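= Paired protein data =
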Amino acid sequence: MLLLSESETQNALPFPGLIDALADMFKTGCDMPVRHHHDMKVPGEPDATMLLMPAWVPGTYAGVKIAYVVPGNSARSLPAVSASYMLSDAATGAPLALVDGGELTARRTAAASALASRYLARPDARRLLIVGTGRLSINLAGAHAAARPIETVQVWGRSLEKAQAVADAVTAAFGIKASAVSDLEGACAEADIISAATLSQDPLIKGAWLQPGTHVDLVGAFKPSMRESDDEAVQRATVFVDTRDGCTKEGGDIVQPLQSGVLKPGDIAADLYELTRGTHPGRKAPDEITLFKSVGAALEDLAGAILAYQTASKG
């Protein structure tokens, strides 16, 4: 059985190949039961979350991720998400690989956003705004740059120092000009793509700030109580999701507008299944505002784990 460390997992999952692997898995599908989602009390801190995410392709590969989301880890300078992924042979049950789940989660999440951007961001999108300074922020920059001709990256966070650290890391990793910004409204008005990955309880991105042609990518706010965009952003945009079942139950940016009537189920234009299978074209006009919400799916983990295993096995 292969044991893939964080660095080995990263090296086995280059973004262009990972984006393609996700596209192929959404096209063909797999068996994906509803994931287990459990709140865990942490004395003196916000609740943590345990996620159990199984998926399999009959007769080929099966896997399950055990993930923990711990908001209090930011005060300990630790990642908010830690996880492990067990990949097995679906025909025999034999274990094949234990993959670093934190790196797998970060890269497949960013790759899903980039996959959506292939259909929803303008082909000439060059200015990317990252909202948030967690582990996903650098990955989102790399993934979006693999899907669109990104030339500049701006990073906003509640800590300008952390935002600058992320910007420096983006430049070092991808050779893209990056800088920290303190004016979120101004940065949103200038961006072609806005990618948010935060644990915010309240909207950060206002619809009034969005310019025609902007693509909004909402990655954080994975609970119904959390939110990264306001009602006006949802109303002005054509709304897309990674999976309808997941986003209409878990992501506050979709759940709350559905509950209030601002958004109706039929207003969700398409999910990644429909986009990759060509049943919806995605962006229809250069000045259209598009909004993509993701909460993650076990399908994405399975696709990434298979790619990591196959890549590492060849090495």
Q: What stands out?
A: The domain at 115-296 is CATH 3.40.50.720 (Rossmann fold). The chain has a mean pLDDT of 96. The first helix runs from residue 6 to 11.
